[in-house]
């Protein structure tokens, strides 16, 4: 049945159909308008002819199946329909996104609540012995996490999307504060440890100095070897009687930056094996800046900046010998002398290297760190004297004069002086006359 629009009209009376005209079930009078219909519907006397029953007039207007608009401007156009459909799709997507975000926020809240509960439970029941020492100071309200947990209910009263973000920010802030406290505590502990190490080293140094002073005094009293008045300050020797890692002598003065040097000394070895280390010079960045060393079955070696040259010297006969080593940075040339005679020479030993200043000179021990960490197997056993340093290579004639005691040439960088040498660990000082000792030998 086609769609139609039905409108209700005024009431009408049914009329009999006229002859010769088709009957439509309605009186033609109904088509004349409401005025005539109402007049015909007036009251009738009793006993008179009764009017026909009243009927409502309906007008049936056919409509299309799509129900289009009946006039311009009464319905949305195609573009408006498209916009409405897009808006509806966007609203649907927004609703889905909001739903997903709410689900994720709920999971985040559950996870944070669990972590905070574990944190609070752990603080309420600390393990045995944990109170003895802790890197963290006590929190004023029990726990930073507990404060966050107390803040969460108040902050979640706001909008749902921002509550988890605020909780995370608060938790991150507390974590950063804990990290800062931890870092500060670590730095404080490191400073305290460094200060303790410094104090311990200084205390050990003072003890060794006092012990050495007492040992020297005992040696002087026992052997009567104290230098009487009038003896030159360089007429002494250092004695290291036992091979260990704590007996040594130290020069109070250091070296400047050098591009050449000559080092001379008198020595008498009492070692059964290798000579050991008559002297070593160490700096902060290089423990083997200058070293004279004979270790085990290896030959005597001169080390400069950890570069090695082997010296053809023989010093194991338990006699006094005058030893000199000379070096220049130009092409790394070097030479070695024993008792005034040149026994070896070479080049390319630490070429163009400059000897670094402000180091430590140790007699009798090889340094693995600046001024310490000695190895007993590399220690010197015997006597040392007349250790001197020049800032250039001495001529062979000058070295021979020193060995023959015909010259008292003093080093222009380091001089052998009783006030410039400290002894430690049981090493002692005694009188020494180079030429007389040589004749006795």
Topology record:
Layout: E1 4-13, H1 34-40, E2 54-62, H2 78-124, H3 144-155, H4 163-223, E3 236-240, E4 248-251, E5 260-269, E6 276-282, E7 290-294, E8 301-304, E9 307-310, E10 321-328, E11 334-338, E12 341-346, E13 360-363, E14 382-390, H5 396-403, E15 421-424, E16 428-431, H6 434-440
Antiparallel strand pairs: 1-2, 3-14, 3-16, 4-13, 4-15, 5-10, 5-14, 6-7, 6-13, 7-8, 8-9, 10-11, 11-12
The averaged pLDDT comes out at 76
* CATH architecture call of the domain at 236-440: Sandwich
| Tally of helical runs | 6
Return Rg in Å. Answer: 57 Å
Can you tell me the CATH class of the domain at 236-440?
Answer: Mainly Beta
Tell me the CATH topology of the domain at 236-440. Jelly Rolls
Compressed to H and E, one letter per element, the order equals EHEHHHEEEEEEEEEEEEHEEH
Helix content: 25-40%
**Rough shape?**
elongated
Number of extended strands: 16
The computed structural class is alpha+beta
* Low-pLDDT segments, ≥5 res: 1-6, 10-46, 65-70, 129-160, 224-229
Sketch the major β-sheet: 7 strands, antiparallel
Our estimate of the beta-strand percent is 15-25%
Distance between the ends: 146 Å
Strand order of the largest sheet: 12-11-10-5-14-3-16
């Amino acid at each position: 049945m086609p769609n139609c629009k039905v409108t209700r009209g005024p009431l009408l009376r049914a009329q009999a159909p006229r002859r010769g005209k088709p009957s439509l079930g309605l009186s033609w009078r109904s088509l004349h308008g409401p005025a005539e219909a109402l007049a015909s519907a007036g009251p009738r006397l009793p006993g008179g002819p009764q009017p026909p029953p009243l009927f409502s007039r309906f007008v049936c207007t056919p409509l299309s199946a799509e129900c289009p608009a009946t006039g311009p401007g009464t319905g949305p156009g195609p573009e408006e329909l498209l916009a409405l459909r897009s808006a509806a799709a966007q609203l649907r997507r927004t609703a889905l996104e909001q739903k997903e975000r709410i689900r994720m926020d709920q999971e985040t809240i559950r996870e944070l609540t669990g972590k905070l509960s574990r944190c609070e439970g752990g603080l309420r029941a600390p393990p045995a012995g944990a109170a003895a020492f802790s890197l963290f100071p006590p929190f004023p309200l029990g726990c930073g996490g507990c404060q966050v947990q107390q803040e969460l209910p108040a902050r979640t009263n706001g909008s749902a999307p921002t509550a988890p973000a605020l909780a995370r920010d608060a938790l991150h802030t507390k974590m950063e504060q804990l990290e800062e406290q931890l870092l500060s505590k670590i730095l404080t502990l490191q400073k305290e440890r460094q200060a303790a190490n410094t104090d311990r080293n200084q205390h050990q140094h003072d003890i060794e100095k006092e012990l050495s002073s007492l040992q020297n005094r005992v040696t002087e009293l026992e052997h009567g070897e104290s230098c009487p008045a009038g003896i030159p300050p360089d007429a002494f020797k250092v004695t290291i009687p036992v091979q260990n890692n704590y007996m040594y002598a130290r020069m109070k003065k250091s070296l400047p930056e050098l591009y050449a040097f000559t080092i001379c000394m008198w020595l008498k070895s009492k070692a059964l094996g290798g000579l050991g280390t008559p002297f070593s010079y160490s700096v902060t960045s290089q423990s083997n800046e200058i070293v004279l060393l004979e270790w085990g079955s290896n030959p005597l070696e001169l080390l400069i900046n950890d570069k090695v040259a082997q010296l053809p010297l023989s010093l194991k006969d338990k006699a006094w010998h005058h030893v000199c080593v000379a070096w220049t940075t130009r092409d790394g040339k070097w030479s070695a002398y024993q008792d005034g005679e040149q026994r070896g020479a070479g080049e390319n030993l630490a070429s163009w290297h400059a000897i670094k200043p402000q180091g430590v000179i140790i007699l009798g021990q090889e340094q693995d760190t600046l001024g310490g960490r000695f190895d007993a197997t590399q220690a010197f056993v015997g006597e040392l004297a007349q250790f001197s340093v020049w800032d250039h290579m001495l001529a062979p004639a000058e070295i021979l004069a020193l060995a023959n005691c015909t010259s008292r040439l003093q080093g222009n960088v380091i001089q052998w002086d009783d006030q410039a040498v400290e002894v430690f660990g049981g090493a002692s000082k005694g009188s020494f006359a180079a030429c007389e000792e040589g004749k006795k030998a």
